[in-house]
Amino acid sequence: MNLFENYIPNTWLETEIKLLPIDIQSKFLRLLKKEKNKHNFLSLLSELKFGIILGQISTELTHEKKIDLLTPDWQISNQKENSIFEVYRLGKSDKDSNLDELYSFIDSKISNLEYNIYVQILVNDNLLDYSIQEIEKCIPDVYNWLKENKNNLHATKIFRGIFELKIVKINTSKKHILCTWGVRIIDQKPQKLEQVDGLKDNEITKKLKKYADIVSKYHLPYFLCVDIDFVSGFSFLRLPRTFSF
């Protein structure tokens, strides 16, 4: 299943997205269907969700309409003025994204094996400099260990200090391995929301500064739309204090 099929249910396509103008619908469907990078796909989806909301505020909705040299994500018009909107998806940290990639890779390598067991995967999160290629080298040893221990409840093994596998249940009702990922604390980065003096501009500050000139030049109301992903570790309660500068 590709990203489009995994994240966008048919019912949503049949209702929500049809609230947008036809040309914008077609554009987003094309972009989402061809996007292979998960991060970029989810950012596009955040952009689309805000567009659907804005489309219910104004029928004069445009996407990436050029103003001078800039293309804000959305622009709505009414009889009095235009307003521009930029979308920012506050997602997981780079560390958590890298961890997920490692977990997913290990999961994909063992979950198709025909052993009716439940295996817990635990990646050493202090060793994120290890790559998929390094884990790939462990897979033959993983296969041998699983074959030898498929009936050994609580059997545990660490592979090259990178990750650990533990058999947490045997004789499941499935005909293949089921995987669970070890519990970990979300790597929350407060500086993604709050600009810290002395540090380079975070993404929110960059977006606020990016449109400062045209906002002043054309007296445009400018709104920054933030889509907070649960896995970022943040909540909307953090936003009022953060944006009060």
> Can you list the strand order of the major beta sheet?
1-2-3-8
Q: Helix tally? A: 9
Strand content: 15-25%
Q: What would the CATH topology of the largest domain be?
A: Trna Endonuclease, Chain: A, domain 1
Task: Please trace the helix and strand order, writing H or E for each element.
Answer: HHHHEEEHEHEEEHHEH
Structural class: alpha/beta
Number of domains: 2
What is the CATH class of the largest domain?
A: Alpha Beta
Q: What's the architecture of the largest domain, going by CATH? A: 3-Layer(aba) Sandwich
Profile the largest sheet.
4 strands, mixed
Percent helix: 25-40%
Chain-averaged pLDDT: 83
Gap between N and C termini, in Å?
A: 44 Å
Protein model, in words:
There is one protein chain. The protein has 245 residues and is α/β, with parallel strands linked by helices. It has two domains: 3-92 and 198-242, 3-Layer(aba) Sandwich (Trna Endonuclease, Chain: A, domain 1); 94-181, no CATH class. Helix content is 39%, strand content 19%. It contains nine helices and eight strands. It has helices spanning 3-7, 10-15, 22-34, 38-55, 94-110, 132-149, 203-210, 212-218, 239-242; strands at 61-63, 74-77, 82-90, 117-123, 156-159, 163-170, 178-181, 222-228. It has a four-stranded mixed beta sheet with strand order 1-2-3-8, with helices on both faces. A four-stranded mixed beta sheet has the order 5-6-4-7, with helices on one face. The longest helix is centred in the N-terminal third of the chain and has 18 residues, at 38-55. The chain is elongated and about 75 Å long. The two termini are 44 Å apart. Residues 240-245 have low confidence and may be disordered.
